[in-house]
Specification:
Helix 2 packs antiparallel against helix 9 and helix 14 runs antiparallel to helix 23. With about 800 residues, the chain is of the alpha+beta class. It is elongated, with a radius of gyration of 33 Å. The protein is about 50% helix and about 15% strand. The chain contains 24 helices and 21 strands. It has a six-stranded mixed β-barrel with strand order 2-3-8-5-7-6. A six-stranded mixed barrel has the order 13-14-19-16-18-17. Strands 12-20-11-21 form a four-stranded antiparallel sheet.
Length: about 800
Amino acid sequence: MENLLKDLRYALRMLLKSPGFTVVAVLALGLGIGANTAIFSVFNGMLWRPLPVKDPQQLVVVASKGTIADFPNNLSYPDFLDYRELKTVFTDLVAYAPSPVNIGADGRPERAWAEMVSGNYFSMLGIAAVRGRTFAPDEGWVLGKDPVIVLSYKYWQKRFGGDAKVIGTTVTMNQHAFTIIGVAPANYRGAYYFLEPDMYLPLTVVGLLQPDSADMLTQRGAANLRVLGRLQPGVTSAQALAAAKPTDQRLAQEFPDTHKGMALVVIPELEARPEPGLGGFMSTATAVFMALVGLVLLIACANVANLILARANGRRKELATRTALGASRWRMVRQLLTESALLALCGGIVGLAFARWAAWGLMSIQIPGDLPLKLFDLRMDWRIFAFSFVIALATGVVAGLVPALQASRTDIAETLKAGGRSGGASAGHHRFRNTLVVGQVAVSLLLLACAGFFVRSFQNSAREDMGFRQDHTLMMSLDLGLQGYKEERGQQFYKQLSERVKSLPGVRDAAITSYIPMGYENSLANIYPEGEAIAEKAQIQDAFIDMAQPAYFRAAGTPVIAGREFTDADTATSPKVAIVNETFARKIWPGLDPVGKVFRTAKDGPPIQVVGMTRTGKYLYLYEPPQLFVYFPMAQRYSNVAALIVYTQDDPQQLVGPVREQIRQLDAGLPVYGITTMEAHVKYGKPLLPARLGAMLVGAFGLLGLVLASVGVYGVVSYSVSQRTQEIGIRTAMGAQPFNVLAMVLRQGMTMAGIGTAVGIVLAFLLFRGLHSMLYGVKSTDLVTLFSVSALLLGVALVASYIPALRATRVDPVVALREQ
C-alpha cells in the first residue's frame, strides 16, 4: 500500500508537470468515455433498467399471436380473466391500457392521461402509495364501480402542488365524480417504458368515462390491453406456453371469429421492449450503436497511447537512470501504468460530466403531440456508475500497457551515452506510433462513413412520399367523448366545425379525421371479402382503418386515384361505402379493379362497397412493409376522438388562433390538444424521429472520431518533427528549400492518413451489411458518401500535418546543430 501511495503521488506530480499533455489526454479519454457512458445510459433507460417494482426479474409480458401475424397482439379483458386462472404457472396477471381523460379540479378542466389498470395492479407489482392508499382488494373488479384515482407523483406535484390534503377530495372526470385515494411513488412512472401516465384508474370505470366503449371489457375481439404476469417460482416461459395450450384451443373453438389460430405468447418483460416482437431489432440496434461508440473509445485509447509513448520516449534518460539505480522492469511498468490509470480516472470524471450533459440534451427533446412520452429515461443508477468506472480503468490499462512495456525496454548504456540528446526513439517505436495513427484514421473513416450513411438515410426518409401533404397543413386534436358527446351531437359538431374553418380567410380546405397520419393511435378491423364471409376456412385479413369527412383527401393531400371520394350523400342511412389503398386491393382482389367490390368487417355485418382507391402510403412508421388500409365516411362510422386537418394558403401557424376561436364558440369547455403543423409532426415527431436520432447520434460519433484522429495525426507528425530537428537543420544547411522540407513532413502525415482511409473504406463496406436493415434507401455502393467523408478526413489530416510541417520550415540550421 505504501508503494502504491508513492506511485500515485509521483504520478500526480509528473502529470501536473506536463499540463499540456495531461489536458489533451484527459479530454481525449473524457470524450471517448463520455460518449460510451451516454449511449449506455440511453439503452440502460430504454431496455435494461428493470421496473421499480417487487422482483422485476419475474415479470413477463403475456400476449397472443396468430399464425399469420408478424407481431404479438394485446389481450382482451375476457381473455385476461381466462388466462389469469392458470394458477399453476402464473402467480397473478395484471392488465392495463393508456387512455385520455378530462379532469376538472378547482374550476380548471384539462386533458390528462390515465393508465387504466386491473384491480390487482398495485398489489401484484408490490407498489405502495406514498400518500393515501392504492386500490383495495375488492376495488376494480365490478363493471361501472369504484370511481377512484391514484395520482402519479409527478402529476400530484404539478397539478396539486404536492398538497397532502387532496387525498379524499373529489374531482370531476369526464363529467363524473371521482375520489383521489392515493399518490404513487416518485420512482414509479408506469408500466410502459415510454409512456408516463398522470394517474391510475380502475379498468372497471371505462363505461363511466367512455359510454361508447362500455362493452370494451366484455368483447372478446377488443384486444387492447397489455398484460403483465409474474411466473411461479421455477416455471419457465416454455412451461407456461404448454400449460396455456388447452385454454388456447378452447377459446379458438368457442370464438373462431377472433381466436382461430391464436396462441399465448410469454416474453420476459425486459425482452418485450419497446413492444413485443421488436426485441431482435432492438438487439441489433443496441449492438450497432455500442460498437460504433466503442470505436470512438478505441480511437481515444490509441491517441492517448501515442501521447504516452511519445512522452515516455522523452523521459528515456529518467527511466534509464532509475533502472541504473536498481528499479526493476515491473517497477517501471507499474509506475507508468499508475500514471495511465490516473489519467483514465480523470478522463472518467470528465466523461461522466460529458455524459450527463448529453443526457440532459436528449431528455430535453420535445415531440409534437400530447402523449406524456418519457422517450429517454436517463436517470443515473449504479449500472451507469459501474460501467463508467470499469471502462475508465480498462481504458487506462489498454492505453498505457503497450507504451509502458515499450518504455521499460530502455537500453541503459545507449541512453546514458546519448545524454540529453533527443532522437533516441527506435524504428520500432516509430512504426508502432504510426500504426496507431493509421488505425485511428481507419476507424475515424469508418465512423464518418456510418454517419454519412445515417444522414443519407435521414435525407431519404424526409424526401419519402408518405401518402399525405406535409407543407401548409395545420392539425389539432379533439376528444368529444371527454365532454360526454353522443354520436348525433358529435356528428353535428364535426360538420359545423369543418364548415366554419373552411370559411376562414387563408383556408383552402378543412376536414375531420379520426387519426393523424403516422400518429400514435390507430385501429384495426377484420376484413371479410364478399362471398367468403361465411366460409369456415376463409382467411381473415386485418386492415388499418380511418374515418374521415368527404373533404379529407383534398385537405390531407391524399389523392384518390381510382373511383370517387366520399360525398355528403354518404350518410348514416345510405349504403355503406369505403375507400381502400392499393395494397388492400392487391391483397384482397389481386389483379382486379377494387371499385365496386364488396366486403364486411364482421361476418354478420352490413356489406360495404368500395367506391375509390388511394396509393399506399405510410401509416405506422417509415420502415413498415405495405399495409392494408381502408377509409370509412365519418358519417357512417363515428369516432369520439378526431383531428382537424386544415390546408392553408400561407403559414399554418397564423391560423392557430382563428381556428381555436371557432372551436371555443362551439364549445368553450372542450380541450384542444396536439396543435402542430404536419411538417413539424413529420420532422420532429414519430415519422422521422428514429431516423433523426440515428443521424444525430452517429453523426456525433463521427465528429468525435474525426477530432481525435486529427489530434493523433498532429501529435505524431509534430513529435516526428521535434525528433528530426537535427536532420532538418542539416538538410536546410545543405540547401534544401522550405518547399522540400514542407513536402517531406506532409508526406509522412498524408501517407498515414491515406493508408488509414483505404483501410477504413474496406471496413465501411463490411460494416454496412450489419447496418443495412437500419438504413432507408441507402446502397452499400454509396460512393458519394464514401468520397465525401474520405475527402473530409484527408482534408483535416492535411491541416493537422501542415501545422508542424510549417514549423519545420522555420528551423534555424545553426540553432538546430548547436543544440545537437
